[in-house]
Amino acid sequence: MNKQYRKPVFIAFALLLVMIVISIFFVTYMQGLVNKSILMNLGEITKQDAEKIQNRIQEHKRILETIVKEIEEENVKTEQDIFNIYNRNSGNTEFSRMAILYKNGKTSTSDGKVVDLSDEINEFFSEENIQISRSRRSKVDNDEINIYSKKIYFQNEEIVVLLAIDNDKYRNLFTQNIFYGNGIECMITSKGDMIANSKNEENNGNVFDDFEKANEKEIDKINKMRTAILENDEGQINYKIQGQTYYISYQKLMIEDWSLIVIVPGNVIAKDLIQLLEIIVMIAMMIVITTLLVTIYILISNIKQKEKLYELAYIDSITNLGNYHAYLKEIRENVQIEGKKTIIILDIDKFKTFNKKYGHIKGNELLKRIGEEIKASIRKNDVVCRLGNDVFGIFFTEAVDFNSIIERLNQRLTRIKLQDYWYNIRICIGVYISDVHEKDVQGMIDKAIIAHDSVKGNYYEPYGMFTQEIEEKLSKESEIENMMEGAIRNKEFVIYYQPQIETKTGKIGGAEALVRWNKKGKCISPNDFIPLFEKNLFIIKLDEYIYETVCQNMKELKKEGYRIPKISVNVSRESLMEKDFIEKYIKIANKYEIRPNEIEIEITERTAVNDKIDMKHILEQIKEKGFGIALDDFGTGYSSLNMLEELPIDTLKIDKSFIDKIGQSHEMIHLLEIIFMITQKLQLKSVAEGVEKNEQIEYLKTLQCDFIQGYFYAKPLDYTTFKLYIRENTNDL
């Protein structure tokens, strides 16, 4: 080479080398940014799918719990009865069949098969709580399945209720198009065993072992991931296998010891980038232009990728509206701006029934149409999202006349046209208007949900508004719930007795035990705590406490020589539904040497007509043990004459609302005459409640009423005063 060309050539090569190095450095730097963004967005997909899977598995568990509860509560005698309960509750769930496993290994299935699981007895009978098995082959159809199981007692024998779900049903929960279908999503155990995957492959491998075999040099990364999963952590890594980089995101599922991992091959993401690097190396003169094109390409690709990942994370696939996470995001961004915000929660009444009747496809069409109608009813800047199932959330970024909005919503959504048919729809709406400075997004949504629940099922209310009264009621209920256990221990529940006076003799013939809550000298009304206790089932413990206190008082009266009248004790529906109710109450009576015929179990009309339990069977068992049975609040609108004839009732208590109308309403007096004719025909004792006036007593005597209970004779009396009352109002002591 001529010397005159050496320097230019050297400079050219040097410049070429510098340009290549700069280009490679630049592209590498951009690739690092892309990798970081990809890992972050991949983690978001993993988190969203993990939440979706956890919710679905929790729903599966809830279905099994519901089936078990109904088996235990209902008069189940045969396997077919159990299968009927399963069919009633399974609906459109993913379960393929139900099975009943006995201790000898015999297993009957809901589709008429009998298989032998004797080699798996220990696994299913070893745990009291609901279990979810590892993947296995079904002995019925050889499909790969997981099994939900719960041990119960049936016909005095331990059995296990099994619900089988085909493994590929979990696959439907995965994001199906991760990076154009090149990614794979797997559920694994903490040890790495495969449970399910999005590629329809066999679940008989171990993810950790496969990775370690593929690249022993990066075992530390897999061990780090394994440790993080065991410690309920989450994260992302990249891993090389045979020179190929794989992006891996992992998330611990709060179900069993399962985790979710998403794996995407790096060549799918960086394919164009690698090609570009090869072009840069080969064509040095085009390096600047190529670098510019690469930069633009990467930025555009990154934006598109983010848009696609955003769509997966924040867009509802059925309605194309935002999902719950998008709803939270929108509200969080807007609450930073001071001003009142309005949140509306809306759902479709009996949407499950619509789905069952018309199918899921039509149900999805309805959801999409509802979303369109809501969007058309609000302003462009306002937000509407589908929060899940048939629930929609609306958020108004500025002040709005929500009454007109709700009127438009009711007009648009009451009647929906799908294809060529019209469907009548009912919706339920809850509204919350925030304070000017309120920032608690989840709290705001919760208040709208509470307002929604306050009118759920009430077709006469166009919407529910969260008010100070609702907040105070919730606060008061929370305060009561915090005190109720201590109130039992501290004996704050005090028993009062209201005498029942024989109409003919004017002497005491019975009494009703009533409860009062004395909290540091302040009396809490039963109206404030009894309905709450019925909801949270604390009423069962309170009923037993009252009953035992009454038995203890009766024993003391006997010991002191009193002729005790028959005492009526109120028992709730929730207590009657307890399996061991009768045995428990007999045991308490025996403990205090009280004969059952000295006590009357008092139930309300609402309890008597409950369709969830066989009330006739329960009352007959109570009657067989010797207890009397009284029906309280008669005439408030629930019961029928047929019920009075069918149920083994001894005493009919006439509600105070009838007594108050004596001398005022001819129609009510006529109705009272009919009621007393019925009691005499059915040979029932009659008790008039709430009697306060002499003219009421005189009229009740003409109707041959047996007992009078009310303030005219006595208010509810504490135990000491009640003893004195007995002494003064009975001929026998």
Question: What's the overall geometry?
Answer: elongated
Tally the structural domains. 3
Largest sheet: spatial strand order: 20-21-23-24-25-26-27-28
Q: Roughly what percent helix?
A: 40-55%
- Low-confidence regions: 1-5
Fold-level CATH name of the largest domain: TIM Barrel
Amount of beta strand: 15-25%
Indicate the radius of gyration in whole angstroms. 36 Å
CATH superfamily of the largest domain: EAL domain
Mean pLDDT across all amino acids: 83
Taking the sheet with the most strands, its summary is:
8 strands, mixed, barrel
CATH architecture of the largest domain: Alpha-Beta Barrel
Number of helices: 25
Q: Report the oligomer.
A: single chain
> What's the count of strands?
28
Features:
alpha+beta; seven-stranded antiparallel beta sheet; 25 helices; Beta-Lactamase; eight-stranded mixed barrel; 48% helix; 3 domains; Alpha-Beta Plaits; 733 residues; TIM Barrel; disordered N terminus
Plain-language structure description:
The chain has 733 residues and is an alpha+beta fold. The protein has 3 domains: 3-37 and 170-313, Beta-Lactamase (2-Layer Sandwich), CATH 3.30.450; 324-466, 2-Layer Sandwich (Alpha-Beta Plaits); 476-726, Alpha-Beta Barrel (TIM Barrel). 48% of the residues lie in helices and 23% in strands. It has 25 helices and 28 strands. Helix 1 crosses helix 2 and helix 11 packs antiparallel against helix 12 (402-413). The longest helix has 71 residues, at 3-73. The relative contact order is 0.05.
